[in-house]
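Expect sequence, tokenised fold; for instance:
***
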Amino acid sequence: MELVSWDFFSGGLLSPISTIILIILAGFTSMVSAAFGAGGGLMLLVIMASMMPMSVVIPVHGLVQLGSNANRFLYTFKHIDGAMFLYFSLGGIFGALVASTIVTAIPLELMKIVVAAFVLYLLWGVTPKIRETSTLWRILAGLWTSFISMFVGASGPLVGSCLYVNNYNKLQFTATFSSCMTVQHTLKAILYGAVGFAFWQWLPLVMSMIMSGAIGTWLGLKLLHRISSDKFKQIFRLVLTLLSLQLAWQGIYFVFA
């Protein structure tokens, strides 16, 4: 006799094997984000989209990433760029408010192409004329990325590229990135809760994935300490570039398919 039914985790919408895979991958992708700055969230989103009903992927993924980034935020709290966090959060609130008015009307696949192009520009193009440490840049970064996050799910590459131009060291980057993503995913949870998404049905799976993610974060931060700052920036730029190209391909494929 089973002590806990597998239906407990997802209301019968996922098989036991899918449930186990998602819990394990939550830990692995959290380790990737902690060690290399970003990328784990998008990896997890792609996998979840292939295993779960699309109507629940973005809100459930947002809750899992909220837990993952909050763990990383607490681990690295003393390295956070407080000004970036404050102004990014302010912009994020405005971005979420704008998104709440059109959350069901945006063509998601076109958004993926826009996001990918923007990330690649920040990584490889001309540095934006707005000074990267200015209040305006930080507020706009929070507004734009939080707005996009409500529709494409994993905005990590976009947020990461906005922080990349600040030339942080590896711990400053990880801490500030995690704090900004925690705010963003909190806003997302509030928005989807307000429009009626039933989070309670998925809470057992979400909590299991968050606990797995906490272990992955701990392992990833151990790895981060072993990587030089220059190596970290090289790997981070490569990871973001590959993920952005993948995101662009998804958008292009669905638009022209």
Residues 8-256 form one domain. The CA atoms of residues 76 and 215 lie 15 Å apart. Residues 229-256 form the longest helix (28 residues). The two ends are 47 Å apart (CA to CA).
